[in-house]
Every structure is written in C-alpha cells, then in structure tokens.
Amino acid sequence: MGDALSVEGNGPVKLYAMADVVEGQMASAHKALAKQFGDKVDVAKQRQFCGFDAYRNAIDLLRPGDVAMCTTRAYIRPVHVEYAVKKGINVFMEKPFSPDPAGLKRLLAAGEEAEKKGVKIAAGLQCRHSPARQALIQKIRDGEMGDVTFIRANRLEGVGWLGNQGPDGNKLMNQLQFGKVELYWVGSGHYVDYLIHQIDECCWIKDAWPVSAIGMGGRAADSTDCSQNLDVYPIEFTFADGSKAFCGFRRMKTTRTDFATYVYGTKCAAQFSGNVHAPTVHMYKDLRTEKDNIVWKPTDDAASPWQYEWNDFIGNIRNNRPQNECKRAVYSDLTTLMGRAACHTGQTVTWDEMMKSNFQFCDYLDKMNYDSPAPVQADANGRFPVPIAGAWKEV
Q1: DSSP 106-135
Q2: pTM for the full model?
C-alpha cells in the first residue's frame, strides 16, 4: 500500500476502502497507514469491512479506473480477483497467486475475461519492472551473451520452524494467521512464497516456460518443525531447447547464505538479481562470476522494483495503456508449483501434467466462513502432514 500511495507524477492516489477477516488487524493497518500518509488514507469507518464476504463490499464501492488490491493469503486470491474483474475493476494481485493448479486455472479464466473488458491486472512479481534488469534482458535478446544454456537462482537462508500450535492449531482462523508460509492450503508453503521471484526471473530470461522439473526435498536432521514445509528444495527445470535452470531454496541454520540469480551464456555470464531482490546487475568478460571480471553494468535503478511496479501500473491506468500480467504471472506460479510437486513426489513432473491438473487443497473456498473446518489437521503432537514420496498428491 505504501508503494501505491508513493506514486508521483500520475495524478492523486488514495486508499478508499479496506476489507479483512480480522477486524483488529485491519484497524492497526489503517492506523499505521494514516499516520504515515495522512489524507491519502480516506477510509471512513463505514468503508472498513470485516468478514469473508467483506471483499465484495469494498470492491462494490469502486468505479472503473479504480484498483482492487488483492493482497491477502494466496488461498483466496482467485475468488477475489474473479469478483473484481466481473465488476470491471483493475486488479493488483500479490504473489503467490494460488496454492494449487485448480486455483491458477480460475485466475487464467479471470485474466481472459479482463482482456475482453479492458481491465488491467498487475501481478506482484516486481522484478520485471526493474530498468536495470530490463537492460540486461535486452542484451540477452540481442545475443551479446550467446545462447543461454544455464541459469542458477538460489535463495538460501536461515531456519524458520513452526512450533506446536496446540488445539487452536486445527481451527480455521488460527491457520489463516500462522499458516501464511507454513501450510500449503493457506499460502503455498515457504518455497513457493519466496522462490517464485527467482523462478519468474528464469522464465523471463529464457522467454519460455520449462517443459519439466525434477527435484529433491528433505528436512534437517534436528528438525522440530510442525509445519508442512521441507527445509531444502533443489530443483532442475528443463526448457524445450534442453537448457537448464537450477533453482535452490533452503532454510537451515549455520549454513551458507545466497540470494541471487546468475545467467550463463555460450559467450559469458551475468548476474541478474541480488540480495532481497536488489537490482544487482552486471555482465562478466567470460564465465567467471568474480567482481574483478565485470565488463558491463547498466544505469543504477533510481527506485526499488516495488515502486517501479506501482509507477508503471498507475501510469498505464491514467494513460489507458494496456497491462494484463495475469497469464504470465499464473504461468510463473505454475512453474513454481511444478518444482514443488517434483520435490514432494520424487518424480519428474511435466508442464503438460500441470496444465491438465485440477488438484486443489480446499474445495469450499467460495462458501468459507468463520465456522468452516480447517482443510488440514495436525496430529496429537501438533505436527501437520508432510509430503511423503509415493503417498503424496498435489498434481
């Protein structure tokens, strides 16, 4: 919201309505935003809605040209986006976009409807809006790196395990609070939530979608994690031309950290992205990715990729330029889910299998309310079910 309210040069932007399923959370967010942005936050009490149908109340107040920010947990993203598009309202949707293939198919259909209506959709894969990265993409397209045969994209960090949530852990509203990256049905799991950016960068670099993925997954030997997550996700994506992208995610203490994307062509290598999505962009003389081997750097980005993302979106709305990132965003998420499935099942998973899949973790999203049962239950020790090869299904 802060990035949206910080757009300059494309007319006024203000926050007009809010919706949440937790009233106290909405109130604290409103207070913090009002303190920082003053009269740009114009949300009277009667335009603050609480409940599972609150998104309808908020969107119904908007007019063509306005934006519905769909930024809650991923489980409900398709439902919210569908409704906004139906009402002819522009959409910003945060990543991840759905925890499962069935939800992504709903989003694809919403994106197609938006295209027909001229509704604009922006997706929270902000690195696509970085001018520095765009400059390197142009060099890749111009052949200055030769043929791109390999991409290495990692996010290797420390540990973040979920403790025993007790009896409340099996209640729906509690799972929505603690399950953002801990439960697959709520938010896709930590690998998807965090690594989707690097995987999207790989697909952008190749200007293609992988045809298959293989991977491995496992937990640390001393794990006390009660979540559904694995600790390591090394994945090899294969593109139609045979080139590879190796994407690694790890959350394990006292290990090497790495948060970057590197590109390897037949002529030279390049760094495409840096720590916490920093626009750390440069080309090397050859395949050695050392600081003293850099041969080219673009002009530094003047703003964060998150701010560029909103500058572009508001500018396109004000000037009626086309923007519909839905299909591309869904495909990047589907690629990420393909990698997750490969690690969880221990099998090769193909793009065609993902496109045909109707798997979903929860089939009552449209009817969900405060009294609905939680889609997943922890055992007597507070541990939620984890993927076991041969017994696990998510495609």
Answers
A1: HHHHHHHHHHHHT--EEES-GGGG-HHHHH
A2: 0.97
